[in-house]
Amino acid sequence: MSYLTINRLQKHYDNYHALRGINLSIEEGEFIVFVGPSGCGKSTLLRTIAGLETSSSGKINLDGQEISELAPAKRDLAMVFQSYALYPHMTVKENLSFALRLAKAPQTEIDEKVRIASTSLQLDTLLERKPKELSGGQRQRVAIGRAIVRQPKVFLFDEPLSNLDAALRVQMRLELARLHKQLGTTMIYVTHDQVEAMTLADRVVILNAGQIEQVGTPLELYRQPKSRFVAEFIGTPKMNLIPIDQIDNQGDRLALSVGGGKTSFPVSRLQEDINTNSTLGIRPEHLALVDSDGDLSGHVELIEHLGSEAYAHVRLSNQQRIIVKAAARSRIKDEQQVHINIDTDEIILLNDSDRVISMIAEETVYD
Amino acid sequence: MKRTITRLLMAPSVIVLLLWMIIPLSMTIYFSTIHYNLLYPGSTRFVGWLNYDFFITDPAFLTAIGNTTLLVGSVLIITVVLGVALSALIDKPFFGRGIVRVLLISPFFVMPTVNALVWKNMMMNPVYGIFAWIWQSLGLTPIDWLSTYPLFSIIVMVSWQWLPFAILVFVTALQSQDHEQKEAAQMDGATSWHIFRYLTIPHLSRPITVVVMIEAIFLLSVFAQIYVSTNGGPGYSSTNLAYMIYNQALLQFNVGTASAGGLIAVVLANIVAFFLIRAVGKNLTV
Ligand SMILES: Nc1ncnc2c1ncn2[C@@H]1O[C@H](COP(=O)(O)OP(=O)(O)OP(=O)(O)O)[C@@H](O)[C@H]1O
Ligand SMILES: [Mg+2]
After folding, report:
1. Rg of chain B in Å (alpha carbons)
2. What does the domain layout of chain B look like in residue ranges?
3. Which parts form a coiled-coil structure per UniProt (chain A) (predicted)?
4. Tens-level pLDDT at each residue, chain A (367 residues)
5. Who contacts B105 (Cβ-Cβ below 8 Å, separation ≥6)?
6. What is the mean pLDDT of chain A?
7. What CATH code would you report for B47-111+151-285?
8. In terms of CB atoms within 10 Å, which of A178, A281, B19, B77 comes out highest?
């Protein structure tokens, strides 16, 4: 049995079914990230694990012990809140040591733990300050430090970086990754930010409307989404989804007519039979602009230059709009006629019920 | 140029306010230095400090000072302690919370005179008061509260009147307390008592300061309750400074001495305010 197991967890609010049967196993030391659209139940799930919300049914086991009925303090979890939730009338030191003091730990042990935590988070010089005399990033570090000194079995983070500015967010993200490496403690992390999810996570849990849509490593989710929802949710800009107009079976390859052009797909990579009304998914980074003889063609409606790359918003000959990643300094102009090549290894096929029916091309999985 | 115009435009209101304050004050100062008794019209000779001397050496003076201190202090303690406790209790949702809140606030809207009459005739009356009934049903002799414990009775009435104010301020303050802080404390292993002690009380320190300052100002001049219920008696046992001044001016018709008393009260109030602000005011600046 794994370290943290969540079994058929349900949560009903007065008139809202927020968690609809969550099953999840987490191994010790894993960094798990919950992502999903706003209101899908990420915070609710995290707070139910923490014990701040009572579950309607289902079980949570941690380290061989059933914790779903225990009080939050008894679960041996520590949580870092989005608003930091520092105690405003206490100094940094008092904030850090609050839990230990309540537990009546010996003073020498308290001092030692506070010292270790404050050194590793560079809070040494701030110990006598009150929270309101700290910057956002420093407050965040105190909140993390408060969790660390308790040496919990699992850390819970609810969008801990969302109140920080972009530069600080990157810095704190690295710091969290370092911390996870150093402590080796299991962490569960809720975020809106895909970059955080992809860079921090050992495994990502994608939630949708109170249910788990897919669990997997960041790369698995990127390369082998199970559904249209995951395919669209992971990756910026979004994956292009183009309805397939016609399918011709040509032995070991399928010839696909899409978006007023043509491409092909190896039959060996199909998980099940393909029917009409299927959709082809291809990420902007797997499309290439070419001078002539492309799989698709269209004209550029708008080009966005991001410095390191550019995105061309193209209207295909059948009026469908797609996004194509282009070189940083491409000289493409709005309204220009373009040809597009599809990297057939990266094509994903979805059936008419929005499930993915293709597999990744084997040779490119882990190169 | 612009400044002159602004000043000119502000002048009428400033002048009115100034006169509003200066005229009564200077008249009081003037009265306090002359012999001015309504029983001896025509006699308005200058007497210097005599009125002050007369007021301070009055045997009631020290009693009145003591009573005022006791009254203000007790009511402050009662309203703050009970106010914090009650507002913490009604902060959590429960059935009928809205009605309970309204009931808790309502004494504030009762006029002081009515308040005193209600307590005097319906609660504390030794024959048909509710307390008398309770005492009787317990087999005890009913107590004549107003004559046995006059100052205590006044303290009860005034506390009853001012408790709602404290509750009103504290309930509002509690609503602004951060919910996630309490949850964080809960996860840190804090019990409800710990949360109350280490988060709620510090959070309320500023509202408590405000309540103490505002109440102190009004409690120094409590009058109606005393006038309606005990008339400052028996003896001087429930006479405070405000009632003593009234006593001088309108029962003994000695306007001169009453004015002197009024000025002494002003000075005393300022001393209290000074120490109060020194002691608790620093809470307000941060
Ligand atoms: N106390 C509550 N009472 C009723 N419904 C609630 C309550 N708290 C949350 N919900 C509902 O439960 C759903 C999930 O809420 P939750 O806060 O878990 O979303 P989330 O995934 O964390 O969203 P976000 O990314 O915006 O933080 C939402 O639709 C919300 O309206
Ligand atoms: Mg949330």
Report:
1. 24
2. 47-111+151-285
3. none
4. 689 999 999 999 989 999 999 999 999 999 999 999 999 999 999 999 999 999 999 999 999 899 988 999 889 999 999 889 999 999 999 999 999 999 999 999 999 999 999 998 888 899 999 999 999 889 999 999 999 999 999 999 999 988 888 888 898 899 999 999 999 999 999 998 888 999 999 999 999 999 999 999 999 999 999 999 999 999 889 999 999 998 988 888 889 999 888 899 998 888 888 888 899 999 999 999 988 888 899 999 999 998 889 999 999 988 899 999 998 887 888 888 999 999 998 999 999 888 999 988 765 545 4
5. B164, B167, B168
6. 90
7. 1.10.3720.10
8. A281
What architecture is domain A237-366? Beta Barrel (2.40)
| Residues flanking ligand 1, CB < 6 Å | A 13, 16, 18, 36, 38-44, 192
d(CA B226, CA B238): 7
Index of the ligand 1 atom closest to the CA of residue A190:
22
What are the beta bridge partners of residue B53? Answer: none
In chain A, residues under CATH classification 2.40.50.140 are 237-366
* Residue nearest atom 26 of ligand 1, based on CA coordinates: A38
Q: For residue A89, give the nearest of B188, B190, B202 by CB distance.
A: B202
**Residues forming CATH 3.40.50.300 domain(s) in chain A:** 4-232
Q: Is A257 left (phi over 0), alpha (psi -120 to 50) or beta?
A: beta
Residue B283 banded pLDDT, cuts 50, 70, 90: low
Answer CATH for A4-232 from 3.40.50.300, 3.10.560.10, 3.10.20.70, 3.30.1360.70: 3.40.50.300
Beta strand A154-158 with A77-80 is: parallel
Residue A339 bridge partners (DSSP): A290, A297
The interface residues of chain A toward chain B in range 34-73, judged by CB-CB distance below 8 A, are 50-52, 71-73
DSSP states of B192-235: HHHHIIIIIHHHHHHHHHHHHHHHHHHHTT--HHHHHHTTT-ST
Q: Which tokens sit at A190?
A: 């809720």
pLDDT digits (tens, 9 = 90+) for B51-109: 888 788 888 888 888 889 899 999 999 999 999 999 988 888 888 888 988 898 888 88
Which residues does residue A7 pair with via DSSP β-bridges, in sequence order? A59
Whose tokens are 């120094």? That residue is B220
In angstroms, the CA B167 to CA A105 distance is 37
Q: Looking at chain A, which runs of residues are DSSP E strands?
A: 4-13, 16-26, 31-35, 57-62, 65-66, 77-80, 154-158, 186-190, 203-208, 211-216, 240-250, 253-258, 261-266, 279-282, 287-290, 296-305, 310-316, 321-326, 337-342, 348-350
Q: Is the ipTM of this complex over 0.85?
A: no
Which are the contacts of A329, defined by CB distance < 8 A and separation ≥ 6?
Answer: A310
Task: Match 């960041």 to its residue by tokens.
Answer: A218
For a ligand 1 pocket test, name from A10, A22, A40 the mutation site with the most ligand atoms within 8 angstroms of its C-beta.
Answer: A40
